[in-house]
């Protein structure tokens, strides 16, 4: 197996053709060819382990697609649908997921360093063990998401919805404010109040916690 082997092709022939074009180009004169998958339907596919660095998947349908340990660094997934997709262990370094719909998706142990995930729907998503260093989750919906063991070094959570989220053993530094209220009842928290709430959810080690003079806040 190589980083260009597809385990299962998408059901849609147009999406399959786009993948075939990329793979043919990469095996030939242009190894840097990017997947042109804007608006295409990749459902039914297993693209685990595939090299998709720089892929353009704007508004693509990736619901339920397996992308385990795929290379998606610098990929454009803005407004893509990833509901129930499995991106466990995937490299999403500097990827763009603005307004992505990824409820119930798995990002377990994925690397989202410096990823732009603003306004995304991540309800019930599994982000356990994910590296979110420098990532922006501004205004993203993380209600009931699993962020246990997540690395939150300088992670931007400005306006993120976190009611019901699991944060056990999460650690690092974050920017707020966050919203921990129920639907229709905003409850914004910032500064020490945000810090205390995150600690109450099991984030970090309170004995070693120290708030900075301004954002971000140590957990």
Write the layout of secondary structure elements.
Layout: H1 13-27, E1 151-156, E2 160-161, E3 171-175, E4 178-179, E5 188-189, H2 191-200, E6 217-218
Parallel strand pairs: 1-3, 2-4
Antiparallel strand pairs: 3-6, 4-5
Reported for the largest beta sheet, the result is: 3 strands, mixed
Radius of gyration: 18 Å
Percentage of residues assigned to helices? 10-25%
Total number of helical segments?
2
The neighbouring-strand order within the major sheet is: 1-3-6
Quick one: overall form? elongated
Structural class: little secondary structure
Instruction: Please indicate the percent range of residues in DSSP E strands (runs of 2 or more).
Output: 5-15%
Average pLDDT reading: 91
Number of strands: 6
Give, in order, the helices and strands: HEEEEEHE
């Amino acid at each position: 197996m190589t980083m260009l082997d597809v385990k299962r092709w998408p059901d849609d022939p147009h999406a399959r053709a786009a993948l075939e074009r990329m793979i043919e180009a990469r095996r030939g004169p242009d190894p840097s060819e990017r997947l042109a998958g804007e608006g295409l339907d990749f459902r039914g596919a297993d693209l685990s382990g595939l090299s998709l660095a720089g892929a353009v998947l704007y508004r693509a349908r990736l619901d339920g697609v397996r992308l385990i340990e795929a290379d998606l660094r610098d990929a454009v997934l803005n407004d893509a649908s990833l509901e129930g997709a499995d991106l466990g262990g995937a490299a999403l370094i500097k990827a763009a997921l603005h307004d992505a719909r990824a409820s119930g998706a798995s990002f377990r142990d994925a690397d989202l360093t410096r990823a732009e995930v603003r306004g995304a729907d991540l309800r019930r998503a599994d982000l356990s063990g994910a590296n979110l260093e420098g990532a922006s989750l501004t205004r993203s919906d993380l209600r009931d998401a699993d962020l246990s063991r997540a690395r939150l070094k300088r992670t931007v959570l400005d306006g993120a919805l976190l009611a019901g989220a699991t944060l056990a053993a999460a650690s690092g530094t974050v920017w707020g404010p966050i919203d921990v209220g129920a639907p229709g009842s905003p409850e914004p928290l910032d500064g020490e109040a945000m810090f205390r709430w995150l600690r109450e959810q099991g984030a970090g080690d309170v004995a070693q916690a120290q708030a900075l003079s301004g954002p971000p806040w140590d957990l």
